[in-house]
Amino acid sequence: MEIKQKQVIQSVANALQYISYYHAPDFIKAMANAHEKETHQSAKNAIAQILINSKMAALGQRPMCQDTGIVNIFVEVGMGITWDADLSLDDMINEGVRQAYTNPENPLRASIVEDPLFTRTNTKDNTPAVIHTKIVKGDKLNFIVAAKGCGSENKAKFTVLQPDESLTDWVLKTIPTMGAGWCPPGIIGIGVGGTAEKAMLMAKQSLMDSIDIADIAKKPNPSNIERLRLDLMGKINDLGIGAQGLGGLTTVLDVKIKDYPTHAASQPVAMIPNCAATRHLHFSVDDTGVAELPEVDMSIYPDLEMDYSQYKQVDLSTLTRKQMSDWNIGDTLLLTGTIITGRDAAHLRLKKMLDSGEGLPKDVNFDNKFIYYVGPVDAVGSEVIGPAGPTTATRMDKFTDMMLENTNILGMIGKAERGESTTQSIKKHKASYLIAVGGAAYLISKSIKKAKKIAFEDMGMEAIYELEVKDMPVTVAVDTQGHNIHSIFQNIQVKYN
Questions:
Q1: Are 462 and 485 in contact (CB under 8 A)?
Q2: Which residue, 5, 20, 195, 322, is most buried by CB atoms nearer than 10 A?
Q3: Pairing verdict, β 252-260 and 370-372
Q4: CB contact at 8 A, 147 and 73
């Protein structure tokens, strides 16, 4: 069996393009079931947006999420393979990544930085991938190609329990500390045993399995691990965190567990979530050519449309703090007007400018506007902007006082919870924090009618944009009185501590 270099490169590139806009059928079915049974209206709205966004992305063949991920590759190399190649396998894979992320018809956001401790310079093509290779019998290359968003990857947890300590207790105590930045509903992957790095690897690998918890529930004689999976899923969902941390019935769609023999004195445990942009694909490469990828059955999507009757229209050009004082947490709004964007690196540069007395960039005016925490995908064709969903607002907490005290912003738009001190700062300045749905990036981008880079263009997706939006859907998460829709996390943590 001779494998050609170009077959590997093209197969990897095709797979990464495919998973940028196609969810796996098992995920869509699980989300549709979650939507059907959800009774909490805010959570139901969020799940609906994720499903509508997924269908739009599939039809438009554009990324379902602006965070097109760090590439994870699991590859099994058959011992009987011979090669027609000038590159190493890692180099072939990375060339496939490069071609996928720089594809002019569907460019994917370049998020990878090299020299992570110091210059953190963007590699501009999302290389290198994180590659795990295993040598096996046979004469095929078996791939799992995944793109892992950082909102969920940042929530990875690890501990070493005593042999007699309860995994369930640790999971239920730890899940609330992850907040909503991992964009639930999603999958929880758990690795138990081996050593620290083995447990982490198993947790990540478990996320690549299909959603099968409903089938497990029907088994007459489930295994010990299957019973544990069922028990954990029920107890995690009973926490009431729900979609986007808004409360509700479904926080996880499945719980996966892999284990491995370990030292008698140890119980290493890793836990990694997969978000609402769950992206992975399994395929094989042999001597017949480039891998064939699955055809997509669009009939699996539920018939859903945005119900705008539930939303209140807001004209940002005339909005006042007095009008915002009438908002309550959980209110759903449609924003029309001008907003300014800014993420981590932009906030850091703004801080340096303000601290030095230089002031804000000349074309950046936050006065009486909202700042949107977003790093969009580049536009293609007639698009104004590419997919542009929110990033995790919690990372911007350390800059919130600075922004509220120096820019006269009305508030912020992002995803996930804010810390207690940030919530109090929002209250003090009679500002608001609004959330957009993580996992609905393509849907949100359609509400953006104009987009112009106005500062820090050298920072790529971290540049500051001025956006003109029409009917951008958001939910009030922290109101001007300091009420916080995500206080559920604090309540759960108090219970388990």
A1: no
A2: 20
A3: unpaired
A4: no
Number of neighbours of residue 140 by Cβ within 10 angstroms: 17
Q: Whole-angstrom Cα distance, residue 335 to residue 471?
A: 5
Give the C-alpha distances (Å, rounded to integers) separating 218 from 227, 279, 316, 442: 11, 26, 51, 36
Model confidence at 1: pLDDT above 90 = no
Collapsed DSSP state (helix, strand, coil) of residue 256: strand
Global pTM reads: 0.94
Q: What sections of 22-40 are H helices per DSSP?
A: 25-37
Read off the pLDDT band of 495 (50, 70, 90).
low
Mean pLDDT score of the chain: 95
The pLDDT tens digits of the residues spanning 176-205 come to 999 999 999 999 999 999 999 999 999 999
Which has the closest alpha carbon to 155: 294, 251, 52, 261? 251
Separation CA 266–CA 261 (nearest Å): 10
Where residue 488 falls among pLDDT bands split at 50, 70, 90? confident
SS3 content of the chain, % helix, strand, coil (to 5): 35, 25, 40
∠ Cα 193 178 208 (to 5°): 50
CA atoms of 412 and 205, how far apart (whole Å) = 36
Amino acid (1-letter code) at residue 118 = F
Q: Which candidate, 467, 434, 477, places its Cα nearest to that of 342?
A: 467
DSSP E strands in 52-185: the ranges are: 70-78, 82-84, 113-114, 121-122, 130-136, 141-148, 157-161
The C-alpha atoms of residue 485 and residue 418 are separated, in whole angstroms, by 10
The answer to whether 123 and 108 are in contact (CB under 8 A) is: no
What is each CA distance from 300 to 103, 179, 251, in whole angstroms? 28, 30, 22
| Secondary structure (3-state) at 83 | strand
Q: What is the CA radius of gyration of the chain?
A: 23
Instruction: For residue 249, count CB atoms less than 10 angstroms from its CB and return exposed for 0-12, middle for 13-18, buried for 19 or more.
Output: middle
321: exposed, middle or buried (Cβ count in 10 Å: 0-12, 13-18, 19+) = middle
Q: Tokens for 104?
A: 């002019």
Whether residue 236 contacts residue 170, with contact meaning beta carbons closer than 8 Å, is answered with no
Report, as an integer, the average pLDDT of 420-439: 96
Distances (CA, A) of 294 to 9, 18, 339, 472: 18, 9, 40, 34
Domains and CATH numbers, the chain: 1-149+280-287+294-303 (no CATH), 150-276 (no CATH), 308-491 (3.20.130.10)
Residue 125 tokens, joined: 């093509």
